[in-house]
Design goal:
mainly alpha; two-stranded antiparallel sheet; 3 helices; 40% helix
């Protein structure tokens, strides 16, 4: 059923009238399948009663679960050093006098 639109679009490119015949043929096949299922001896219980008994399957064992708490370990190996030195920025040496002069001009 999902691929029917794809099939119909492929048929439509070849012959526009063939879509009608394909759709009616598909509906006819569905009607035949429904008639076969309706004429079965067990049609009243079809889908309501399981086909296989549960006794034939292996015994179901209850699942045992144990709760485990995660162990968290925090290890600090070295002190983190800044990548940029306070007196240099981007490899350029910054003079304190120059910074003070620029701050006076801006403020």
């Amino acid at each position: 059923m999902i691929s029917c639109p794809l099939i119909l679009s492929a048929i439509y490119m070849k012959n526009r009238d063939a879509i009608y015949y394909f759709s009616s043929g598909f509906a006819f096949v569905g009607l035949i399948v429904m008639i076969i299922l309706a004429c079965r001896k067990d049609c009243k219980t079809l889908g309501k009663v399981p086909m296989y008994s549960e006794e034939s399957s292996e015994e179901k064992k209850p699942v045992e679960m144990e709760e485990k708490k995660p162990e968290v370990k925090l290890v600090v190996k070295e002190e983190v050093k800044p990548a940029i030195d306070e007196k240099t920025f981007g490899g350029v040496d910054i003079k304190q006098e120059f910074v003070e002069m620029l701050t006076k001009l801006v403020l």
